[in-house]
Every structure is written in structure tokens, then in C-alpha cells.
Write a structure and sequence with these properties.
heterodimer, A: mainly alpha, 8 helices, B: alpha+beta, Alpha-Beta Plaits, 11 strands
């Protein structure tokens, strides 16, 4: 049976989506389309609030949550919470239009930093499936895949940005690169697991994973294809782009569920 | 500086009766599903049939008794975001229930599965070396209950210098956390980095 905590799946995927979208807002020069930019910052803030709120469902005693900011010097989990909070604060400033679009590159870089910090929480030597470079690659992959796909959806839907082929190409390119990065993660994880875990644990994990692994792969590849096809064809209907985004998101969520299910430790 | 202790386990004497598990569970009133001390059962080997119709075998079985090892490099302490998991002056790793948020990060990091979430108390719990008994000169409950005298405890530096740190499968390599657990190995003990599956009571431990 597969064991995972949906609160953490939701938290990590949404935070990576927020970071990816913030990066694309900066890289694609979305400040040239003020109404769209305002809308995107609101979406990022809303997703961030849902992510942070959802993550508290994983805690046994939420009343002690303020203590989680006290070990920034030693614990990656403490750094994760501090980093996500700082990122959220910057996005809130942008939503309130404090600081103007000069903040965009800062938010994008803090977002990337946050993705890195979140990945370090899972660099656990006792969990060989997690303790590989695949974890960083997978988390950045999710950020780029969902950020790129998200921006493509909003650009395609925006009248203001109707004539923005460069931004659309960038979004699609980043999305495809993200999907590829994200799909590298399980391969590196399996390599790490195969090198360190007893043979039985490896077989057990593969048995758990095979049911969701193929749908995850299909959703990501098909989603990327449909999204790009919808953009390249200059399709006026948003349905294809939306379906592409939805499939990519489903693929990333399924991939993260598999990631958490692979929490099999060395030792007892 | 206060005296610090290590657990000692003679695997050649242990018969896997689990009196230590029960004494700990009973003494600390642990709920269903929570066991601070656990006994992995290790079995392996096979029978081989030869051309002349005779058989030889290399089957083996041995037990370990493991709780929190109050490690020198406790990864649970390093991973704890609230500072609830901490090492005291006398070397005991313990949970401060007034700070613990119950995020389970210590449990993910510990290769001995020592920290465990008590859902009714809403915080992580683990072996505290029976601190309250040590303070009045008594042995930890698990040690006192062992009928084979396989389990004991003593001054950390002395035991580790004499026996070294536990480096036997199915435990992780000692280099990961430097456990304060000294083990006299069973004659058939497998090295810690073995990849052969031979844990016979996996379901009981998980």
C-alpha cells in the first residue's frame, strides 16, 4: 500500500508552482502587461496561502508552530518555513503594489532559493530514494513545468498580451524543460535506492510505484504535448492549453505522491 | 559534567523473548502501535542438497534489542525545526513536549525509528533512558527485565571503548549517527551494510 501525506504533496507542489510562476513573470517581462501581472501575483499569493495552510494539516500540534522558526541555523525544515514565509511576504508586497516591478527579479530569485531549501529537507541520508541530486532536479523541474504551463494558460487567456509570441515561446520552452527535469528524478532515486537498500525493499517499492508510475509519465508527456500543440496552432480556444496544464499538474501531483511513498529508510 | 551512559547488548545471549519491549511499554504506558524498544529478528541461510543425496545448511537466526541509542551525532536533533528534540548535558536525547510540533521530521531522519508520534499526546515520544529511574539509582526498565542478562547499560566511554559502536545488520552503519549502543555480536551477525533481506518481523517493526 502507498503511504504519503497529501498535506505535504499539496504544499510542495503548490509552492513550486508559485516559485516557477514568479520566475516566469520576471523572465517573460510580464510587467509590460500590468493587468495580467496583477492577476498573476494574486494567483501566486492565493496558491501560497493554500499551500502554507495545507501544510499545517500535517502537524500534530499547530499551537507550537511558531517554534519552527527558531532553528534556522541548524534545521532545513526551519529554513524552509522561513524561506516560504519570506517569499510570501514579498509576493504580498507586490500584490499591494509596494516596491513596483523592481521587486520582480528579487521575488523570482527568492522563489528559486525557496525551491532549493525545500529540496534540502528531503536530503535525508537514511532515505536513499530521496538522498540523490534527483530530489533537487525534480523539485526545480516541477517549478519550471507548472510555472511555464501556468504562464502559458494566463498569457493565452489575456487580451492584453494577445501579441506576445516571445513570452509564450518562453513559457512553453521552460515548461517542457521542467517536465524533462521532473522525469529524471525517479530514475536517479531508483539508482540511489538500488545502491543502498536491501533487495526486498527495492522490489517492494517498485511494486508500490508501478500502479501510479505509468499514469504519471503519460500525464506529463501528454500534457506537455497538448499544451504546446495548443500554443503552436494559435488555437483561439483555451481548452487545449487548459487541458495541457491540468494534465501536467496531475502528473506532478502523482509524481510527488510516488516521491513520498518512496520514504523507505536504511536501518529498522 | 554529568555521567553519560550507553546501552550494551550481548546478541549471543538474547533469545528474542521481548521482555524488554513489554517492560518498556508497560512502564511508560505506551499506547497501541508505539514501542520505544523493539527486537528485530534476523534470519537467513539455506539448505543445500548435494549429489550424494546429503544436505548441508548455513541457516542462522539472531536477535537485537534496539531503542533510541542517544547517538553522539543525533540526526533527529539536527533535523528538528523547533528545538524540541535535544541532547541534554548527560548525553540523553529527549523530546521537549512543550515545543514539539509533531512534524515527524525527526522520525524520517532517524535510521533506528526511535522517535515516534503519540497522536493522543500530539507530540513525538521516544526512549529517555528511563531518566527518572537513573536519577534514583535504578536500572532502565528494559535492562532490569532482561531474563538472559543480554541487555545492560554502563558508562558510555568505557563501553564504547571496549566493544565499539553497533555496526550489525539490520542496523544502519554506525558512521551515520555514532550510536551509543555497544553490541557483542552473535556468531552469525551480518555486517551493517549487507543488502540481503533477512529481517523476519518487518511488519512488527513498521
Amino acid at each position: 500500500m502507498m503511504h504519503y501525506e497529501f498535506a505535504l504533496v499539496l504544499f510542495t507542489v503548490l509552492i513550486q508552482f508559485c516559485a516557477g510562476l514568479a520566475l516566469l513573470v520576471w523572465l517573460a517581462g510580464v510587467h509590460n502587461y500590468p493587468a495580467l501581472e496583477k492577476r498573476l501575483w494574486r494567483v501566486i499569493l492565493a496558491c501560497g496561502v493554500v499551500a502554507l495552510g495545507g501544510s499545517t494539516m500535517h502537524l500534530a500540534n499547530i499551537m507550537h508552530a511558531p517554534f519552527t522558526l527558531t532553528q534556522v541555523g541548524t534545521a532545513w525544515l526551519s529554513r524552509e518555513i522561513a524561506s516560504v514565509s519570506f517569499f510570501g511576504l514579498l509576493v504580498l508586497l507586490r500584490v499591494l503594489n509596494v516596491g513596483g516591478n523592481k521587486l520582480n527579479p528579487v521575488i523570482a530569485l527568492v522563489g528559486l532559493g525557496t525551491v532549493y531549501v525545500v529540496s534540502q529537507v528531503y536530503r535525508v541520508p537514511a532515505v536513499p530514494f530521496w538522498n540523490t541530486i534527483g530530489t533537487e532536479l525534480g523539485f526545480f523541474g516541477t517549478a519550471l513545468a507548472l510555472g511555464g504551463a501556468g504562464l502559458a494558460v494566463f498569457l493565452h487567456d489575456s487580451k492584453e498580451a494577445e501579441d506576445a509570441p516571445r513570452a509564450l515561446s518562453l513559457a512553453a520552452g521552460v515548461c517542457v524543460a521542467g517536465i524533462m527535469l521532473s522525469l529524471v528524478q525517479p530514475l536517479l532515486a531508483l539508482q540511489g535506492g538500488a545502491a543502498a537498500l536491501p533487495e526486498g525493499s527495492l522490489v517492494q517499492t517498485l511494486n508500490i510505484a508501478h500502479g501510479l508510475g505509468l499514469p504519471r509519465l503519460l500525464a506529463a508527456v501528454l500534457g506537455g504535448f497538448i499544451l504546446c500543440y495548443g500554443l503552436v496552432r494559435g488555437c483561439k480556444c483555451n481548452a487545449m492549453v487548459l487541458i495541457g496544464f491540468a494534465l501536467i499538474a496531475v502528473g506532478e501531483v502523482a509524481g510527488r505522491m510516488l516521491f513520498y511513498a518512496a520514504n523507505i529508510r536504511i536501518g529498522i | 559534567m554529568k555521567k553519560s551512559y550507553a546501552f550494551y547488548m550481548d546478541a549471543s545471549r538474547c533469545m528474542g523473548c521481548k521482555a524488554c519491549v513489554i517492560a518498556c511499554k508497560d512502564g511508560h504506558d505506551l499506547p497501541l502501535g508505539l514501542n520505544w524498544r523493539r527486537v528485530p529478528e534476523c534470519t537467513g541461510g539455506a539448505w543445500a542438497e548435494h549429489a550424494d543425496g546429503t544436505y548441508t545448511q548455513n541457516v542462522f537466526s539472531y536477535y537485537l534489542s534496539v531503542a533510541c541509542n542517544h547517538c553522539e551525532s543525533p540526526v533527529c536533533v539536527k533535523a528538528c525545526p523547533t528545538g524540541a528534540m535535544h541532547k541534554t548535558e548527560d548525553g540523553i536525547v529527549q523530546v521537549d513536549a512543550t515545543r514539539c510540533v509533531g512534524c515527524n521530521n525527526c522520525a524520517w531522519n532517524c535510521p533506528y525509528s526511535a522517535p515516534q508520534l503519540d497522536k493522543s499526546k500530539k507530540h513525538m515520544t521516544k526512549c529517555n533512558f528511563c531518566r527518572e529511574r537513573l536519577e534514583v539509582g535504578q536500572k532502565p526498565l528494559c535492562v532490569a527485565a532482561c531474563p538472559a542478562r543480554a541487555l545492560d547499560f554502563g558508562p558510555r566511554e568505557e563501553l564504547i571503548a571496549k566493544y565499539g559502536r553497533a555496526n550489525i545488520a539490520p542496523l544502519p552503519p554506525a558512521s551515520m549517527t555514532e550510536p551509543n549502543l555497544a553490541v557483542v555480536a552473535h556468531k552469525d551477525a551480518q555486517p551493517a551494510n549487507t543488502r540481503k533481506p533477512f529481517l523476519a518481523n518487518k511488519e512488527e517493526l513498521s
